[in-house]
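quick q for whoever's on today - can somebody do inverse folding on this one?? i tried earlier but teh output was garbage lol. tokens:
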């Protein structure tokens, strides 16, 4: 039974740690050997010392546990093909430790766990689709209403779970569509500037891909991708030091500057129908940075950010200017409170 196997991996990690303090615990057995089971009645368990986005305190890296049922994630047949797609499971949570439930993490990848050896391959990837859907329904949609953002999602009759799932897969597709095999990015994504560029690239690639597709779910998925990213991540606690927070603010600047988010007398309209060329142009710029060699990368990334008035650093925070009158500035003062 998967549950027993999974628990035994965690026990092996705890035994390897012995009487040392919790900070010494490394979850190499879980990260290297875990085999998830799929199916409507499957029960999987991940126990390890992990970082929890939005967890109880900054830098929280505690012993956490989550039990979940899982199904295999497949790219929809109408997405353009990508190669090297790594194992990915769509999960529904069954039980969570306190720290995990208080955080706002919606994915669990090996790199979030403390290990003695850096994981070189992605042995598992879990996206908690139930948490993504409830984050949209409980936080993003009410905020969109409060900010008077009108989008076709307000009138869409498509099931929210399906739209959110397609948006997530499109973002993953964006990662795989990059120049570098996804496997090779696992180690480098630990670095903040690289990870921020990688997230921006995935969002813009996903958006450009969805805007090309005639499938009826493509347009709502593109909207949910944007709104979720911006309204959920751009004003996270400590957003200026979090990859997702920085990528989200930057995406907001880009989308406003190319006319995808338009201020009207009634609020803000999401206008994506004629945005393909402008999005593709932004994607090309980010792609150039993403494709630069390891030697050139940092300089190119900094130049790219600075050309937009930004100063990213690996230090404590990223300076994120909020031009007066911009949506970022208006929303910033509302959402930061
Ligand atoms: Zn990503």
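ok took a stab at it. sequence:
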């Amino acid at each position: 039974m998967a549950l027993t196997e999974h628990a035994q991996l965690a026990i092996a990690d705890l035994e390897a740690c012995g009487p040392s303090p919790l900070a010494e615990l490394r979850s190499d057995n879980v990260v290297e050997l875990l085999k998830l089971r799929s199916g409507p009645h499957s029960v999987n368990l991940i126990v390890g010392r992990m970082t929890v986005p939005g967890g109880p305190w900054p830098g929280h890296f505690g012993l956490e546990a989550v039990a979940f049922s899982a199904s295999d994630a497949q790219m929809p047949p109408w997405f353009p093909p990508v190669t090297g797609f790594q194992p990915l499971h769509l999960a529904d949570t069954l039980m969570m430790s306190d720290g995990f439930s208080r955080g706002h993490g919606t994915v669990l990848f090996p790199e979030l766990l403390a290990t003695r050896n850096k994981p070189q391959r992605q042995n598992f990837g879990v996206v908690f689709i139930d948490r993504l859907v409830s984050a949209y329904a409980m936080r993003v949609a009410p905020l969109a209403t409060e900010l008077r953002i009108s989008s076709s999602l307000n009138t869409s009759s498509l099931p929210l779970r399906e739209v959110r799932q397609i948006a997530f897969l499109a973002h993953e597709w964006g990662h795989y569509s990059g120049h570098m095999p996804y496997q090779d990015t696992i180690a480098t994504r630990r670095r903040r500037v690289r990870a921020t560029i990688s997230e921006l690239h995935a969002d813009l690639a996903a958006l450009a891909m969805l805007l090309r597709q005639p499938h009826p779910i493509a347009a709502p998925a593109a909207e949910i991708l944007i709104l979720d990213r911006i309204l959920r991540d751009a004003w996270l606690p400590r957003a200026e030091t979090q990859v997702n927070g920085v990528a989200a603010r930057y995406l907001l600047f880009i989308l406003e500057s190319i006319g995808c988010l338009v201020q009207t007398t009634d609020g803000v309209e999401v206008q994506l129908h004629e945005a393909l060329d402008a999005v593709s142009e932004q994607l090309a710029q980010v792609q150039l940075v993403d494709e630069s060699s390891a030697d050139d990368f940092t300089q190119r990334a900094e130049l790219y950010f600075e050309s937009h008035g930004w100063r990213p650093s690996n230090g404590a925070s990223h300076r994120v200017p909020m031009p007066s009158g911009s949506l970022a500035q208006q929303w910033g003062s509302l959402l930061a409170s």
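fwiw The chain has a mean pLDDT of 86. also The beta strands are 39-51, 61-72, 89-96, 107-108, 126-128, 149-150, 261-264, 267-270. so keep that in mind when u check it
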